[in-house]
Amino acid sequence: MGMMGVVRPPERYAPDLAAYHERARTGPCFVCGIVARDLDFSDHHIVYEDDSAIAFFNRWPTQRGYTLVAPKGHREHATGDFTVDEYLALQRIVYGAAEAVREEVGAQRMYVMSLGSNGGNAHIHWHVVPLPPGTPYEEQQFAAVMLETTGALDMPEDEKASLAARIGRRMGG
Ligand SMILES: [Zn+2]
Q: How far away, in angstroms, is 25 Cα from ligand 1 center?
């Protein structure tokens, strides 16, 4: 929480993206690592988990509440690795995450998308990103999610943990 009456832009920083991309391309699957509670990935605060899906925070959020939703099993194709029923079940979790994030942090719009690369971060996941109210037009859309240009929000780990718990409660976790 900031001091009352003092409005400051959020502090941001540039993570070591070269090291990140190296690890993404050569290291173990990060989603499988989070599912397995691998300590290398313990800074992705887990928001929600059930038998088939997991939701967790982006390690380097460009927006407060930036959440990723993934199937727990290692799948790579956004549609082709799922039956339609499996896909729709997962999208129910995406919907729940988006509504929980929107209710918890406020958003003029929710961005929902799947990106990834077969050369790194192959485990399919959906980005659920709140666009804060009042964000100028030029800072919306890709500019609101691009770590390379926007930088990561400097949020204390305990603040991330409590926000993750509140979003998780809204998801019924
Ligand atoms: Zn995986």
A: 13
Cα angle at 103 between 92 and 58, to 5 degrees? 70
- Amino acid (1-letter code) at residue 115: L
Which residue in 88, 23, 26, 95 sits closest to 55, CA to CA?
95
> How far, in Å, from the CA of 20 to the mean position of ligand 1?
17
**Ligand 1 center from residue 76 Cα (angstroms):** 8
CB 71 within 8 A of CB 91: no
pTM: 0.93
Q: What tens-digit pLDDT sequence spans the chain (173 residues)?
A: 445 556 567 799 999 989 888 988 998 999 999 999 999 888 899 999 999 999 999 999 999 999 999 999 999 999 999 999 999 999 999 999 999 999 999 999 999 999 999 998 899 999 999 999 999 999 999 999 999 989 999 999 999 999 999 999 999 97
Residue 122 CA to ligand 1 center (angstroms) comes to: 7
Strand-pairing partners, residue 49, are 54
Structure token digits, residue 19: 């090291």
Quote the ligand 1 centre to 121 CA distance (angstroms).
Answer: 8
Ligand 1 centroid from CA 29, angstroms:
5
Q: Compute the distance between CA of residue 135 and CA of residue 110 in angstroms, rounded to an integer.
A: 13
